[in-house]
Amino acid sequence: MKKQISLFLIALCWCLASAANVKPFVHPGMAQSMDDLNAMRELIQQGKAPWKQAYDNLLDNTKLDVPSKGFCEVFRGPYGANSVGANEFSRDGQLSYNLAMLWFVTKEQKYADKAIEILNAWSHKLRGMDGNDAKLIIGLSGYFYMNAAEILRHTGAGWQQKDIDQFTLMTLSVFYRAIEDFFMESNGNWDASMISTMMCIGIFTDRHDIFDRAVNRFMRGERNGGITKYVFPTGQCQETVRDWGHIQLGLGEMVRAAQTAQTQGLDLFSVADDRIARGCEYMAKYLMTGEIELFGLRSDRANNGRQDKFEPLYLHYKYQKGILLPYVERLIMENTRAKSSSHLLGACRANMPDHTQLAQLPTIMCLNPTEVGASPTSKPALPKDYCLVKPGQSVQDAIDRCKGTDKWVVLDEGVHTLKSTLKLYSHLKIMGKGRASVLHAAPGVSPTMVKGEDALTDVEFRNFMVEGDKDIDQGTDPNEKRRERSYMRGVPVREGIVICSDDNLTNDIRFENMTITRFTESGVRIVGAKNLQFNRCDFADNGGKVIPGQGFHHNILLSYVDGAKVSECRLVESLYGCGVHVTFSSDIEVTACELSRNGGHGIYMAESKDLQVKNCRIEGNDHEGIMRAVMVHKNQGVKLESNIVQCNGNDMLMALTFDDGPNTVTTPEVLDVLAQYGAKASFFVLGKNINDETAVVMKRAHDMGCSIENHSWTHYHMNTLTAEQVRDEVERTSVIIRNYIGEAPHCFRPPYLNVNDTMYQVIDLPFVGAGSSGDSRKENDRDKRISNIMRVCTDGSIVGMHDFAGNHETVEALKILIPRLLSMGYELVTVPELFARKGAALDSHNGILYSNTAD
User: Fold this and answer.
1) 8 A C-beta contact, residue 367 and residue 570
2) Contact 818, 675 (CB under 8 A)
């Protein structure tokens, strides 16, 4: 788990439009850097396989006699229908990239001239894109235009500056304008392609804000756009139930985005437990063997095509990481490698060392389709005494007949359509034969089930599916039905199981291996109850935008509940609600669950006490992964332990800071712990401690993404100094920091936190304080320091510690503290990043000593 969290944070902390650590882009720097291009050319010239064959294919596939005229307006209808100029636009994009690569390898001007001709033809004429697929065609083809332009611009191809300027104008006014806001309403392959092209636009135009916007979308895009939205922990893709052509398309665009980011030194391949690789392995396993497990119904549509998109992923894992992707390897070697050209050449890296032994992707914590929800098979063990209900027979009659007995009500295979809401009675036990047994309310019937008596007790639901959509047939597009539930107009109000009581007479309700899905209101809503159990259930896609609106409906809603255990459940994809929504409740345990991809929060808790969230995967939610809300009173007794919390929209942020370094003893130990978990921090250094030896340590911190800040030269009581002395203390330190790392500090921490008006007037940096850890006192051992920090840490807080030589108790505290904070949902960032992402001012000369983002 440590490695998983680390890799996520390494990538997440990049996507910040802030004043901190903005490094120039590498050029060329999209699919390949200059070193990569040179390595590719050398391998071709040496006749090395498979590069020489790919080059020969490239020569065969690239024609110089294709006319290049461009269009003023390109129109592309759905699936390419009724298009004007779209086919030419796509063809010329790929052709320009092929020509640019041939130019680089051969240095024959004819290839550069033809590529430039194509780019100029479009950039001087194209004024807009329109049609159903306008965003998509830019996403899919813009990548090739941008890579061609990047190579030509930075390799002396003779492209005139006026034409480069015109291409830049087209790129920003047509390409970027069209894809700037992405398209979350569609399937994830759309956003994936736009992410890839937008990264390239940011690099070509040297716009970090554009590049960071694309990275942020990759990390936490809404609906289907982010990596954890598009690929589930099992490797199943958002479009797996659709068809395999679109799956390959979307994953291939994610691979391109990660390759571009890698060229710029950002590892998106590793994000969310190597999520792209897991998605591609899952996809390739099906294409090569036909064997997969999945949530939902398997699609075999478009399973005969093999797209040449996965060479960058395969080569990255084989050579850079020493990991074999066996099914991706089979897919490539048996289907695409022999015919590949620019896709294989563009995947070449300068550093491709051989490994004597390749590892496998590590196993991660996730819930599998055979473990949760109604069983995919229809052969469960039946109870000794039961009443079998066949489709078409009345389920309510069976419940009424079994009332007061020990008989189970067993739903046979098939769809059981309810003409009225089912009424539940005490001691009722109802089960089905897995996913084959479907309970479905007829139009106008809602909720599906309610209690039939005030004192409802001892009720169990086991192993069947409750379908909330108005139609059983979900079609071939997973987003089609979701779009209907996303808007109020024309969407019926449909709610799942509702058990409400104002006197807490309801108790002992159990859900075992249940699948409850696609209700526009909550899947399960329980108010006023005791002793609830949810075991190995799959609650997904509940909660649409019906009156009273978004935020009211969830996969599970618990209110005024005393005692509930939610174990090994999948609580995902609520359109506008939460995986679990808890208010005014106590003794709630959520353990080993997946609370992911919800439109609201993973789990929401308010006005409650004694809540425990442990060993859960909480990712890809549009808002907080773990939301501890305050209505009037804070939640009490909340315990968060060993959770994987990543890629959520608004996760909690905290800045760890270290004073009085740098040194060659303790500062490296602190950095080792930070690096282990991918965390960042701010180091407030003393100028007198900086020399050639300690500067090596300081530069290591800077290269890790940490910020180096000013803590004065001598650590003297600066409120006793003259204005000139104050200025000297700060300016000398800023100068030596800049000299060694090439970047000036962003803020200042006064020694002993002593300040006065003279300091505020003279020092041209924001003043930053912190919540104290007490780690400068020897009597505070490791556990005391941890306790002190846990008391002051909140979302947006700054925590003060020290890395002076010999402060090893703080190092030991960090080894426990950092994974604990990460499991609680905190992201550890630098002080400038903290303020930038919280949208809070960090200004100088305003008389404020900031100790958190709320100052």
Assistant:
1) yes
2) no
671 is written with which tokens?
A: 């950095």
Peptide bond connecting 745 to the previous residue in cis, omega within 30 degrees of 0: no
Q: Which amino acid is at 733?
A: T
Separation CA 623–CA 603 (nearest Å):
10
Report the C-alpha gap between 216 and 846 in whole angstroms: 32
* The predicted structure's pLDDT at residue 854: 56
Three-state secondary-structure class, residue 130: strand
Which pLDDT tens digit goes with each residue over 102-148?
Answer: 999 999 999 999 999 999 999 999 999 999 999 999 999 999 999 99
- 144-175 burial, b at 16+ Cβ within 10 Å, e below that, comes to bbbbbbbbbbbbebebeeebbebbbebbbebb
- Single out the residue of 119, 34, 134 nearest to residue 76, CA to CA: 134
Q: What angle do CA 205, 211, 212 make, to 5 degrees?
A: 145
Say if CB 89 and CB 78 are below 8 A apart.
no
**Which sign, positive or negative, has the C-alpha torsion 821, 826, 829, 834?**
negative
Residue type at position 419: K
CA 432, 437, 441, 446 torsion-angle sign: positive
Taking the alpha carbons of 270, 276, 279, 283 in that order, is the dihedral positive or negative?
Answer: negative
With beta carbons less than 8 A apart as the criterion, state whether 661 and 686 touch.
yes
* Pairing verdict, β 797-802 and 771-772: parallel
**Alpha helices (runs of H) in 264-370, residue ranges in sequence order:** 271-289, 311-315, 326-331, 342-345
Please give the Cα distance from 196 to 558 (Å, whole number).
41
pLDDT in tens, 614-647: 999 999 999 988 888 888 998 899 888 878 888 8
Query: What is d(CA 188, CA 232) in angstroms, rounded to the nearest whole number?
Result: 12
